[in-house]
Design brief:
The structure holds two protein chains of two kinds.
Chain A: H1 3-15, H2 27-35, H3 43-72, H4 79-101
Chain B: H1 5-13, H2 20-38, H3 42-58, H4 69-87, H5 101-112, H6 122-134, H7 137-148, H8 153-160, H9 164-190
Helix pairs in contact in B: 2-3, 2-4, 3-4, 5-6, 7-9, 8-9
The chains are: A mainly alpha, B mainly alpha.
Chain lengths: ~100, ~190
């Protein structure tokens, strides 16, 4: 007795007896009841929610940084002194270089 | 007027979940028949079918409409059945000492006179179910689809998500696995 012959015979037996497609009574109602709390997932919506949260957090951080930098910046008493301070800062290195030369 | 699958799917995606019910009614017989190939207990079959439709509902936005909805759903059904087989791998039947009396008689008849053993017999169907339940999940899936349902390799590859060469390799291994089980039965009983 060859196992391959028995295999063929048994597979033929399975082919001749397809499983029934009967459905239990009102099975679709059971599925619809299970689906009641669910919603069809939208992939864009799945990404959209965390991305919106991230975007709002970034805006909030930017605003806070802006407010903090404005609040902490030293107040210039007038525009001339600010211009002088700026000029000193820019020419500081060249002034030092000239002093060394002399 | 009956709505088409595409219209029903569009309605569901626009926020009308009730439109999913006609799709369930239409396709549940096919999904039940598929699930019954892999699960024996009716409670398990119902769980599989329920999971298939819940997954289909949740993944409906991913359905592009390039192929018919039925193909997409059946692909989902086959993959769910495969997951079920893998999850229940440990509870596969182990011993052949539990062959029923009609199964033993059918085998005895086959050993004496192979042509006399009727393929239509209920005992033969039970025996093949018992042997299938001993196969590994991938072997069972590929034997069922390729040998019993007689689907082409390419279709099996599409439905399972495996490549065509992988289906062929798994089919080769599955046939060998099945022959090994059959050899073991015949050796235990008749040698």
């Amino acid at each position: 007795m060859k196992p391959s012959d028995l295999q063929t015979k048994l597979i033929n037996a399975a082919r001749r007896a397809p499983p029934p497609d009967q459905v239990p009574y009102a099975f679709e109602k059971r599925i619809m009841a299970r689906l009641a709390g669910l919603s069809p997932a939208n992939q864009w919506a799945l990404w959209g929610r965390p991305l919106w949260r991230a975007a709002l957090s970034c805006v909030a951080i930017t605003l806070l940084c802006g407010v903090w930098s404005l609040a902490s910046a030293p107040k210039a008493e007038n525009s001339d002194s600010f211009a002088q301070a700026f000029e000193h800062a820019v020419f500081a290195s060249s002034d030092q270089h000239l002093e060394e030369l002399w | 007027m009956e709505l088409t699958d595409a219209e029903l799917i569009a309605a569901v995606l626009q926020g009308d979940p009730a439109s999913f019910e006609p799709l369930v009614v239409k396709y549940q017989p096919r999904v039940f028949a598929t699930a019954r190939r892999y699960a024996r207990r009716e409670s398990e079959v119902e769980d599989i079918v329920q999971e298939v439709f819940i997954k289909a509902f949740q993944k409906l936005a991913g359905f592009r409409g390039e192929a018919p909805f039925e193909h997409w759903l059946m692909r989902l059904a086959v993959r769910t059945c495969y997951d079920f087989l893998r999850a229940h791998q440990r509870s596969r039947e182990k011993a052949f000492s539990e062959l029923s009396q009609p199964e033993t008689e059918w085998l005895d008849k086959y050993v004496v006179e192979p042509d006399a053993a009727d393929e239509h017999a209920e005992a033969a169907r039970q025996l093949i179910q018992r042997i299938l339940s001993r196969l590994s999940p991938s072997a069972r899936l590929v034997i069922t689809m390729l040998e019993i349902e007689e689907r082409p390799v390419k279709e099996i590859a599409e439905m399972t998500g495996w490549s065509v060469p992988l289906v062929k390799v798994r089919a080769f291994r599955a046939r060998a696995e099945m022959r090994k089980i059959l050899a073991k039965i015949t050796k235990e009983k008749y040698m």
